[in-house]
Amino acid sequence: MVEAERMRVCVIGTGYLGATTAACLSEMGFEVIGLDVDEDKIDMLRSGRVPFYEPGLDELLAENLKTGRLHFTTDFAEAADFADLHLICVGTPQRDDSGAADLRYVNSAVECLAPHLKRPTVVVGRSTVPVGTAATLAARLAALAPAGEEAELGWSPEFLREGFGVEDTLRPNRIVIGTNSPRVEKAVRALWQQQVDEGTPFLVTDLQTAELVKVSANAFLATKISFINAMAEVSEVAGADVIQLAEALSYDDRIGGKFLGPGLGFGGGCLPKDIRAFMARADELGVEPALSFLREVDAINQRRRARTIDIARQLIGGNFAGRTVTVLGAAFKPNSDDIRDSPALDVAATIASLGAHVTVYDPQALERAREAHPELNYATSMLDAARDADVVLLLTEWAEFREANPEELASVVAQKRIVDGRNALDPTFWRASGWTYRALGRQ
Ligand code: UGA
């Protein structure tokens, strides 16, 4: 392996994780080649356009293309020739036929790359995979690569949050590398030397532990969200207020306030599919009961969507047919245009299927939403979306919605009724403007 400052890195996969990783590593001074099998994506990235919305990434991409340290390709031979370290950053979505992870893209990355690895090379997986995957891939890599055992594979999960991808990559809260190879460890240490020097914890584990760190972190986060949402269910019937409850819990620093935000629950391309893949893997390993609580976590999360729809239905008198409904938010969370398993869009589509005329507005995700749900109506501003609404649902807590002016919104709607699916608004303030305000877990 060459010295850190001259190490050349290939990032395989240029989605949220890969494109962000490639631009950030280049920003850190490495020479980077980003590889994807999707030619359109590579063309866009080459011309300085990011194929999705991630704050700060456009600028970083443009700057680093200019430095000449960042390139893109669709050619595995070119990437293998160029790089000393390959990072696998492809997606592992949920399979169509079960809750398990679809490993076709990670398998294909190894199979396409390996035949070109003629010199000693380190390959590090960053994608989220079921425990046991990395060991299988390591064997496959060594079998297919002309370099044989000198083509070594480790696993180093990423923990970046969409919307904060640049920050989380440049300043990770920990680096975990699963490997028993000193060469792999050295390469990964060199990659993050700057961060480690600044205090980022660096943990070396076996392959299985590294894989498990990622899925158990996401399982924990999902559990925490569903825990507070379960408390919201109880609060509603018991006459309590889940926002005050969450605040009171948060002062116990063993519990903490993060990811204790009650509301419509989690969505996105990670938490939902990761807990399902984790359960599927536990089942295969014969330890299904160990994770059966995750089934409940998933069920609580789904019930939040149904409950949100119920509250809106009650507000308009029990029937959606022929009513005008406004949905604020389509992305699975603010500061993202990702609509994968978006609770907001799911709710919008269900309400439309019940006969309402649903208009959706989102600051960034409109295009993707329209593609996925052409049956819904879309507006290009909050006020346009809210025109003549019988009820407004706030389902993704973009700053624009949090800061919405109740008087201004009141001037366009037919009825001043709002369902705050994210507990993002101040009920007193909205009620003072004459709105009927409802939220999950509150009276
Ligand atoms: C998540 C993890 O937070 C990252 O650490 C991880 O690296 C990433 O998945 C991944 O596996 O790649 P992300 O999917 O970007 O990141 O989104 P989060 O910020 O975790 O939010 C997930 C969902 O939970 C969102 O729908 C959000 O609205 C919801 N949420 C979050 C709540 O409902 N309540 C909360 O208190 C917090």
Automatic annotation (TrEMBL):
<protein>
    <recommendedName>
        <fullName>UDP-glucose 6-dehydrogenase</fullName>
        <ecNumber>1.1.1.22</ecNumber>
    </recommendedName>
</protein>
<dbReference type="InterPro" id="IPR036291">
    <property type="entry name" value="NAD(P)-bd_dom_sf"/>
</dbReference>
<dbReference type="Pfam" id="PF03721">
    <property type="entry name" value="UDPG_MGDP_dh_N"/>
</dbReference>
<comment type="similarity">
    <text>Belongs to the UDP-glucose/GDP-mannose dehydrogenase family.</text>
</comment>
<dbReference type="InterPro" id="IPR014026">
    <property type="entry name" value="UDP-Glc/GDP-Man_DH_dimer"/>
</dbReference>
<dbReference type="InterPro" id="IPR017476">
    <property type="entry name" value="UDP-Glc/GDP-Man"/>
</dbReference>
<dbReference type="InterPro" id="IPR036220">
    <property type="entry name" value="UDP-Glc/GDP-Man_DH_C_sf"/>
</dbReference>
<dbReference type="InterPro" id="IPR028357">
    <property type="entry name" value="UDPglc_DH_bac"/>
</dbReference>
<dbReference type="InterPro" id="IPR008927">
    <property type="entry name" value="6-PGluconate_DH-like_C_sf"/>
</dbReference>
<dbReference type="InterPro" id="IPR001732">
    <property type="entry name" value="UDP-Glc/GDP-Man_DH_N"/>
</dbReference>
<keyword id="KW-0560">Oxidoreductase</keyword>
<feature type="domain" description="UDP-glucose/GDP-mannose dehydrogenase C-terminal">
    <location>
        <begin position="326"/>
        <end position="427"/>
    </location>
</feature>
<dbReference type="GO" id="GO:0003979">
    <property type="term" value="F:UDP-glucose 6-dehydrogenase activity"/>
</dbReference>
<keyword id="KW-0520">NAD</keyword>
<dbReference type="Pfam" id="PF03720">
    <property type="entry name" value="UDPG_MGDP_dh_C"/>
</dbReference>
<comment type="pathway">
    <text>Nucleotide-sugar biosynthesis; UDP-alpha-D-glucuronate biosynthesis; UDP-alpha-D-glucuronate from UDP-alpha-D-glucose: step 1/1.</text>
</comment>
<dbReference type="InterPro" id="IPR014027">
    <property type="entry name" value="UDP-Glc/GDP-Man_DH_C"/>
</dbReference>
<dbReference type="Pfam" id="PF00984">
    <property type="entry name" value="UDPG_MGDP_dh"/>
</dbReference>
